[in-house]
Design brief:
With 371 residues, the chain is of the alpha/beta class. Helices cover 33% and strands 16% of the residues.
Length: 371
């Protein structure tokens, strides 16, 4: 199979879909790899390293798109890339289609076989391709939140740990999954008082054991969320429905009740966000202020730490990518329920149930009926 990888063009996105080590693995398996020149520079990988690994370097991204059988990326294609889709292309990347109807329609119209990192699910319910970025985003959320609590950014001027004689900051995390657990870990490490809310009692019990009872755990209800965020200095939105739209658990009405200069970091913004007041921001302009509350809603948070993120992501994506390349997507879907769960569009149909359920006029088709 001919594997392609192009430079990411999303605002301040420095990650890359394949590292030179990944290229070696694909080449060793008998595949041809096409890399756009400069694709890996933002993550610290030079063209020389890719050439040494066996890649063919291509000057224009359009030529990579037109020549490859499978495109391996990090972020979703942007509208200027939609005309580069071709019939039967396998697109292997993060997609977040529930928050992007235009992209979904373009993939369907282009007959693209899209495999979304964020919906690929193993038999134990884990999300192996989402997990590494969730870990990074969770940890980054506290780092960024702490920064924007500073008065110079419009924050209330609170240090998470405080100092002797002053109160610690209150950090409230809505969602106790991978993002929430990693956010809690860093917030605790920085000395904050941490509260985590989740709908699963079992998950709350796990977190209680994980953190030795040092984190306040609450069942996620509207009443508990409202009471918690009113006293919060920093709120982290860490809610996820794989492939589906994120429920709006952080209500706009809460803003007027919160402390002026409190910060809300919506890590769920890729899937539409869990805040009613959220809208996507970029690393160039990461924040906005509404009703005195600072909102940080960057859609590609891990891109800020591109080298760590690229290595962590490609460590996870490589094995599944090699399986698709070796057998073709159709056979890979038959052989691997995990890969089947990652397919979002195929043959002009939506094949992810949570995605289809996000739109009133979209039907779901089981991928196994199409291959």
């Amino acid at each position: 199979m001919r594997i392609g990888c192009v430079r990411e063009i999303k605002n301040n996105e420095f990650r890359v879909g394949l590292t030179p080590d990944n290229v070696k693995s694909y080449v060793a398996a008998g595949h041809e790899v096409l890399i756009e020149r400069g694709a890996g520079v933002g993550s610290g990988f030079t063209d020389v390293e890719y050439i040494a690994a066996g890649a063919h370097m291509i000057d224009k991204a359009a030529d990579v798109w037109s020549s490859c059988d499978m495109m391996v990326k990090v972020k979703e294609p942007l509208p200027c890339e939609y005309p580069l889709f071709h019939d039967g292309l396998v697109l292997y990347t993060y997609l977040h289609l529930a928050a992007d109807r235009e992209q979904m329609d373009a993939l369907l119209a282009g007959n693209v076989k899209s495999v979304a990192y964020e919906t690929l699910t193993e038999s134990d319910g884990s999300l192996p391709l989402l997990a590494p970025m969730s870990q990074i985003a969770g940890r980054l959320s506290i780092q960024e939140g702490a920064k924007y609590l500073e008065k110079t950014y419009g924050g209330e001027g609170v240090l998470l740990a405080g100092v002797p004689g002053t109160p610690r900051a209150n950090v409230v995390i809505i969602g106790g999954g991978t993002v929430g657990a990693n956010a809690a870990k860093i917030a605790m490490g920085m000395g904050a008082h941490v509260t985590v809310l989740d709908i699963s009692l079992k998950r709350l019990e796990t977190l209680d054991i994980m953190f030795g009872g040092r984190v306040q755990t609450l069942v996620s209800t509207d009443s508990n969320i409202e009471r918690a965020v009113i006293d919060a200095d920093l709120v982290i939105g860490a809610v996820l429905i794989p492939g589906g739209s994120t429920p709006k658990l952080f209500k706009r009405a809460y803003l007027k009740e919160m402390r002026p200069g409190a910060v809300f970091v919506d890590v769920a913004i890729d899937q539409g966000g869990c805040g009613e007041s959220s809208h996507v921001t970029t690393h160039d302009e990461p924040i906005f202020i509404e009703d005195g509350v600072v909102h940080y809603c960057v859609g590609n948070m891990p891109g800020a730490v591109a080298r760590t993120s690229t290595i962590a992501l490609t460590n996870a994506t490589l094995a599944y990518g090699l399986q698709i390349a070796a057998n073709g997507l159709e056979q890979a879907v038959k052989d691997s329920p995990a890969i089947a769960s990652g397919v979002n569009t195929y043959g002009g149909r939506v094949t992810c149930k949570n995605l289809a359920d996000s739109f009133d006029d979209v039907d779901y088709t089981d991928i196994l009926t199409l291959v």
